[in-house]
Design brief:
The chain has about 160 residues and is α+β, with helices and mostly antiparallel strands. The protein has 4 helices and 6 strands. It has a single domain, classed as Nuclear Transport Factor 2, Chain: A, CATH 3.10.450.50. Helix 1 runs antiparallel to helix 2. The chain is elongated, with a radius of gyration of 23 Å.
Length: about 160
């Protein structure tokens, strides 16, 4: 075999190796994003269960210390203002039904959007809420925490 032919074959194999390496990189990124989406989905479910049970230790482990909530009424609450409402019974969520939840992953952060219908008692008053929401999750020290939430009332049509 000629030297020129050997060089051509080596060049072809190197090119093929680069293509394979690039495909592996893309596939591994897709797997990481899929894992992130699945992890955040699990955290969303865990959060919902903790809210329904008013499971304070779990809520405090999920909500970041610097969490803030821009509520549908226009005010904003920190974690230390918001979570005690569950513990005191001031806010009791009786039922939550979600729809259209999507998770978009961005490395060590994710944004979750959707709609939730909530039956709750707030300061002893029965309420039904229909909210479009956005939750922002960040992975810190290997664990996903909720850092922000935004909710907007959805007017129900008669």
């Amino acid at each position: 075999m000629s030297e020129q032919r050997i060089r051509a074959e080596v060049k072809d194999k190197l090119a093929a190796g680069k293509v394979i390496f690039a495909l592996l990189a893309v596939l591994s990124s897709a797997v990481v994003l899929a894992d992130t989406v699945a992890d955040v989905e699990r955290m969303e479910d865990k959060r919902a269960e903790a809210v329904l049970k008013a499971d304070m230790p779990t809520l405090y482990s999920i909500y970041a210390e610097d969490f803030f909530y821009n509520r549908a009424g226009g005010d904003s609450l920190t974690r230390e203002q918001y979570l005690p409402m569950y513990g005191s019974g001031e806010l009791k969520v009786l039922k939550m039904t979600g729809e259209g939840r999507t998770v978009k992953a961005y490395g060590d952060s994710a944004i979750v959007t959707g709609i939730v219908h909530v039956d709750a008692t707030i300061k002893g008053e029965a309420r039904t809420l229909h909210l479009r929401y956005m939750n922002v999750w960040v992975k810190r020290q290997g664990a996903w925490v909720l850092v922000a939430r935004q909710a907007t009332n959805i007017p129900m049509k008669n």
